[in-house]
């Protein structure tokens, strides 16, 4: 699989910062085509800064960021945006047109496509997402607006999709609707990088986790491995998903705790409990 994003010893300092200190430093990792990567860490760890370095909105102060092999410092931000699409936390920062149709067409028209091609792609997205093309975006619910913002990015077919807290402010149904859409895109080949504070969501959807603390990368691995690493969780001030926490606590018990050491889902929990003779009766 080809490498779509590569960070080599990347540091970034905002000019506005009085002390001139880097808010991210020494970041080195690469992301391959088709991965679903979650970027996690407490407030101020540097996740949003890192995601903006990925799509060329920010250029590194030190080191290099390569998008499909090309350094972002040598590319125009608009050129990076063709490969790396970004969905912001607040859809109202992205939506700027009066109808759903026009909103979907907006990004495509910036790409010098013929009007016929724009219309074909917009119609396909309307059909695929189940939108009403003539609806006014600001009359839609928060969840529908987030879906429209996602569709407007996706319609341009970026190779990499960056999502900054894509489910903030959504109820559970809306959240699953968006996440299942993203999962479908990922299965179809789009590389996904998701910034999230929701560890349950990360555990359910991501295949790899990059954990940050104070601007540095403190872990890079499979979600289950990272979430079971107590020192990483402490350093990045995060609490693992409930099932991992329960498994860790039960595995500390001397009698039959070891059996719980690798439990990562409710199904596996049930299997271990059944094997231990649990019949579903109330335990006093
Ligand atoms: N435009 C800016 N100018 C100056 N400093 C900034 C700017 N944006 C962010 N910072 C600082 O950079 C650091 C990292 O911020 P960043 O938003 O990347 O972290 P984050 O992990 O995404 O946090 P959160 O989860 O709260 O969004 C913080 O200390 C923040 O105050």
UniProtKB/TrEMBL annotation:
UniProt-listed SMART domains: AAA (SM00382)
Pfam families noted in UniProt: ABC_tran
PROSITE patterns, alphabetized: ABC_TRANSPORTER_2
Coiled-coil residue windows: none
UniProt keyword annotations, A-Z: ATP-binding, Nucleotide-binding, Transport
Domain ABC transporter intervals: 5-239
Family: Belongs to the ABC transporter superfamily.
PANTHER family according to UniProt: ENERGY-COUPLING FACTOR TRANSPORTER ATP-BINDING PROTEIN ECFA1 (PTHR43553:SF24), HEAVY METAL TRANSPORTER (PTHR43553)
Protein name: ABC transporter domain-containing protein
Organism from which the protein derives: Raoultibacter timonensis
